[in-house]
Amino acid sequence: MGRAILRKKVQYKASTDKPATPLAPRDSNIPPARRDSAVESPNSSKKRSIEQVDLTNENNDNPKPAKQKKSTTTSSTKGGKKNEKKNDFDVSGIHLDGEDDDSCPIFDTCQDIRNKINAELRKGTTKAELVRQISAQFNTREKITASQLQRFMDNKGPLGGAESGAFYGGYVFFEKLRLKQGKPESKKRLEVKQAHPNGMPRKDSANTFVTLPAGEKAYIDNLGRMSTSDHGRI
């Protein structure tokens, strides 16, 4: 029995897409594009990033210490101490009898004032600051200078430098400072008040002359009192 053969007609359906643009003929003068310079794969950028990180880490194995900015703590501390010292020395609220015409009675010897000045210098107070504070105590005379203060400091004894403005101004300043701090009068000060009820003489011992019999000598004690060895006249 013969096998039947079926034939099916295949229908062609035209494509609705635009016809493909024919390829242009290749120009022999244009070199072919390099594959590696056109588009980099995503993995290549990751690889490069890793290499850059590794290179950075290698360079930072021994990093240089970063320069530190100069601390302003020292300068601010100095400024704070300076302001604190200025407040401690502010005696403008203290008034002494006789200071309006610069005639306060003095109950410290010249050597006592020098000792107080030296004590402040040992604390770190500058001579310039002391000159300013001492000068501020005058109302009728010119201010003292650093050289005048130094000449006063070069003297010795209870009356050495008694005529200097540094003696008077120094006494007024330190007496106001004592009152501000609430300190009592020292034993030495009370002795000076007893020996000189009207205040210390303002005559420098270097400019004091006495007439004495032959063989007599004059002496000045630590309170600024003058005496002779026997019957000498002052």
Automatic annotation (TrEMBL):
Superkingdom of the organism of origin: Eukaryota
Residue ranges constituting the DUF7726 domain according to the UniProt record: 104-183
Residue ranges, annotated region (Disordered): 1-95, 184-208
Listed Basic and acidic residues bias regions: 184-194
Compositionally biased tracts (Basic residues): 1-11
InterPro entries: DUF7726
Name this protein carries in UniProt: DUF7726 domain-containing protein
Originating organism: Elsinoe ampelina
Source taxonomy: Eukaryota, Fungi, Dikarya, Ascomycota, Pezizomycotina
